[in-house]
Amino acid sequence: MYRVASASEYLVITGFGIDDIKIAKKAWVLPGQSYSVFDISPVNYTFEVMAMSAEKLPFILPAVFTIGPRSDDDDSLNKYAKLISPHDKLSHHVNELVKGIIEGETRVLAASMTMEEIFRGTKEFKQEVFEKVQLELNQFGLWIYNANVKQLVDVPGHEYFSYLGQKTQMEAANQAKIDVSEAKMKGEIGAKLREGQTLQNAAKIDAETRIISTQRQGQGKKEEIKVRTEVKVFENEREAEVAEANAELAMKKAKWAKDSQVAEVEATKAVALREAELQKEVEIMNALTQTEKLKAEFLSKASVEYETKVTLTYIP
Q: First CA to last CA across the chain, in angstroms?
């Protein structure tokens, strides 16, 4: 037979060919095998746990736990299928099992704490109860999906929480009166302090104003002296630059005058030398002319004398 479980159910199959159990959403159930169906939807368990503190003071812990198997953990499903699924999850057996775990862990934890610690640390107390209960439920494959622990309740004849609440209210009322008185006193003192601070601040502002005014006047004078000094330095620097420029110009003029005089002397000497050279050339030319003239005269006289001698020699 082919069997299919619904959305919130699982098949648990045992028998031929299966060593332990087989859990599946759908499967063939073969001859020699048997199957059952178990629901994994969580169930709400409501309890009023009777516990006792370290001072032997009893109290009631109302709680609602939403508990069921973990569908995302195969090991938890196996434990649940073996230990819980044979019983109706709403049966007295399962209810007593869960109640016993919750009561046992709550009583053990409460016995190690004083009423004051339980009352002051209710949130931490509840969280520790959840953790210890979950640790025990793990062995049955159960998981706490949600847990709601209500306000701790007194056992008749032991109105500790009532008295503690009244004490807290009285302390709060007394503290409120003290706070009002302190607030009124602080208000009056604050007003006086504010008035004194106002006068002090006014005097302080006046003094600071005079100081700032004096500082600004002194700063203004300092700036004026600084500007005058800078102007004087600038004027001196300019005068020095002018003097240096004048000196440099005078030196250049002197050099230019010297160079001009040297040039004039050199020009005069050059002219004289040229005149001397020209005069020498003239004299040389005159000497050459005279020499040529003398040569010509001597040559002419010699020629005449020669011709005369020759003529005289050949006369018959």
A: 201
| DSSP character at residue 18 | -
**Residue 109, class by beta-carbon neighbours within 10 Å (0-12 exposed, 13-18 middle, 19+ buried)?**
middle
Output the CA torsion 128→129→135→137 (10° steps).
-160
**C-beta of residue 163 within 8 angstroms of C-beta of residue 180:** no
Dihedral sign (CA 184, 186, 187, 192): positive
Query: In the chain, pLDDT over 70 holds for what percent of residues?
Result: 89
CA distance 207 to 213: 10
- pTM over 0.85? The answer is no
pLDDT score, position 265:
84
Per-residue CA distances from 142 to 72, 104, 145, 305 (Å): 12, 17, 9, 181
Spatial contact of 144 and 102, defined as CB atoms under 8 Å apart = no
Token pair of 291, please? 């020499």
Dihedral over alpha carbons 270, 272, 274, 276 (to 10 degrees): -150
- Helix, strand counts (H, E) of the chain: 5, 9
In whole angstroms, what is the distance from residue 174 CA to residue 185 CA?
Answer: 16
Token duo for residue 284 = 């040389």
Name the average pLDDT for the chain. 80
Rounded to whole angstroms, the Cα distance separating 88 from 63 reads: 22
> Which phi and psi angles does 46 have, rounded to 5°?
-105, 130
Q: Which of 145, 152, 153, 107 is nearest to 128 (CA)?
A: 107
Q: Nearest-CA neighbor of 110 among 100, 119, 98, 97?
A: 119
Radius of gyration of the chain (CA): 69
Walk me through the domains of the chain, giving residue ranges and CATH numbers.
1-39 (no CATH), 41-158 (3.30.479.30)
What tokens were used for 121?
């640390």
**Are 42 and 130 in contact, with CB atoms under 8 Å apart?**
no
